[in-house]
Amino acid sequence: MKVSYYPGCSLEGTAADYAASIEAVVPLLGVELAELEDWNCCGASAAHSIDHTLALNLPARNLMIAARAGLDLVVPCALCFNRLKVAEKALAGPQRVFWTAQPESLVKIWDLLDYLTQPELLKTLSAKVARPLTDLRAVCYYGCLVARPPKVTDKEAYENPENMEALLRVLGAEALDWSYKTDCCGAGLAVARPDVVDTLVKRLYDQAIAAGAQCFVVSCQMCQANLDLPQKRISRKAGRDYYLPVFYFTELIGLALGHPEVGKWLAQHLVDPRPLLKELGFPSL
Amino acid sequence: MHFLKPAPGLAEELEKARLSVSACYQCKKCSCGCPLTFAMDLLPDQVIRLALLGQEEMVLSAVTPWVCSSCETCTTRCPNGIDIAGVMDWLKEEALHRGYAIPQPEISGFYQSFLTAVRLGGGRLSEPLLLGLYTLRRGRILEKLRSGELKNELLLGWELVRRGRLKPRLPKKLKGAPEIAVLFAQSQKES
């Protein structure tokens, strides 16, 4: 299967580990990622907050390129996914968009987790698990924007998605139940109001620990950054030593499949997951 | 006692922007589910009510739209289909456009720096460029130096550079850079 792939700007930067793990594991499942040619920034929170025109025109350009490529479009970043979906609805509706598209010429937009957890791909994955993640207790954290609002994302399970849990079970890990899987991490407020992010993220840490988790698993690089980067600062403020590594689901696929480069991706995290994995019998990463 | 003088103007403007608030019956589901209320001055349901009553000054100078993280919980759960997070975006953009004093200049400055970085980068975001522009825009460098905030920020930045997560380079030059420039120019013309 060949799909168009829209990595988004942060996968070229702070989420380099996410990008590397995607490019390594997705082909192992028989999916070929063809990076969208000449893609541009989706405008992110900045555009939809203060410039509604750019907030549609920037992502719409990517959809026009994807329509020319003619393949389904797979997006690993929750925010990019959401903005592309907003542009998709706008191009098909009465809003004024710089680009003009025939709605039927637009391609289907997937968020990466949804794409990779289609039943047949889970089956392929299941057959390839070489090193099950036995005894790894995790909470799945989906964040906001792959799910909400459903009239944009076209998701059915927007309050309680469960496909990441299904994936973890295939990998042999234990996915714990908790009520915060689609709560907000503070997203784009991380730089301007880190104090706000600290309050939101501390609540997520406490709830993950209450659920019995050793770690988070995420599918959004904004969530990863907000849970991983300030953990030391939040620990200092809270007067307790949090140790909650934050894995991308693609890194765990790599781990269970025995990919040789997993250690390299994990070394890019600020909260080093390797001590936890060593305890679980993954000594040499 | 202070009485509000209702005015229809604001609700009509929102209507025109396809963000009608007139169906609100104050169930407060938006405020109950909002994770950011601890940082807000007005609750989301109050913003909607005040907008409906035409209290332009109060809603356009409020902190609430700026600390809204656009998590879309309110929009998702509103039983009357009001796009509350969309209203928050509209209020931010209009507050800037109409020259209101912005109560959260860090946040508006971050968004402005972000779009400037995308424009200067020719279509993709360079995170180091964004952080540089934002730091310069906000000024306060001496103040941050004294409080130790600058040191902590630089240490975090260094940790990211060391791990290959912050690459001090500009993004790839796009073939479509002239198209992107047109989009930015278009947007300025319309605002």
Automatic annotation (TrEMBL), chain A:
GO molecular function: oxidoreductase activity
Domain of life: Bacteria
Keyword list, A-Z: Oxidoreductase
A Pfam family per the record: CCG
Keyword Lyase recorded: no
Oxidoreductase in keyword set: yes
InterPro entries noted in UniProt: Cys_rich_dom, HdrB/HdrD_reductase
Every Cysteine-rich domain range: 3-85, 140-228
PANTHER family per the UniProt record, alphabetical: COB--COM HETERODISULFIDE REDUCTASE SUBUNIT B 1 (PTHR42947:SF1)
Listed name of the protein: Disulfide reductase
Species in which this protein is naturally found: Desulfobacca acetoxidans
TrEMBL record, chain B:
Keyword terms, alphabetized: 4Fe-4S, Iron, Iron-sulfur, Metal-binding, Oxidoreductase
Listed GO MF terms: 4 iron, 4 sulfur cluster binding; metal ion binding; oxidoreductase activity
Domain 4Fe-4S ferredoxin-type: 21-82
GO cellular component: plasma membrane
Highest rank taxon of the organism: Bacteria
Signal peptide: none
Protein name: Heterodisulfide reductase
Organism name: Desulfobacca acetoxidans
